[in-house]
Amino acid sequence: MASKDERYVSGVKTEVAVARIRERVASLLVDLSRRGLVAATLCERVPGADLFVTRPTDVEDEPTPEKMMVLSLTGQPVAGTPGESGVRPADVELYATVLRELDGATALVHLETGHAAAWAARGREIPCLTAQAAREFGGTVPVLAGPRVDPAELIEALRGDDASVVLVAGLGAFCAAASSREAVRTAQILEGVARTATLAAVAGDAEPLSAESIADLSGRARLLREPITDGRR
Predict the structure, then answer these.
(1) pTM over 0.85
(2) How far apart are CA 168 and CA 98, in angstroms?
(3) Which residues, other chains included, contact 122 with Cβ-Cβ below 8 Å and sequence gap of 6+?
(4) Share of the chain above pLDDT 90, in %
(5) pLDDT of residue 9
């Protein structure tokens, strides 16, 4: 059994970590908004605790750290914390399950508008048309039936050798990563890839890259890839 001092130190570390994550989540949401991804949700787990931080849906102005919510990994607000009275995201239990069950996932981004969400609304995967798509995603971006999705099915789809991304028909796009910065970077690239695919489709059916090209590009990228961390936690 942990001593009183050990519990105190653990509690202080958790409070410090929560404060840092609040700042990071708020800042990255502002960055996504400035890039046109206004309807985006970002969740980040708190290290060493069964908690995560996200944005409540009733924050209409620019998100600030004190407005972020701290939730348990069952999706319940933590009493006595700033933001606890906010309105939880409609899919909060899905987010909580992914963060709890997906190995290595510290952060999750959910895009509900934009080009990636538009592809999801069509119930179609995003074809691999460019070297960037091949390097980042290792092929097409898959799509699951929705808008209600089995959490286990979503988690399995996010489990992959390349970037963890998936579309859910009628629900949007999901990006999971080992850090918030990596999840946001992936979401921004996914949106760009979806936009390129949309523009290419205007001229007719675009030809996807060959399986050989995709394997070569993704293999080289995997050798060079270095994880993006959130720095001091």
Answers:
(1) yes
(2) 14
(3) 169
(4) 70
(5) 34
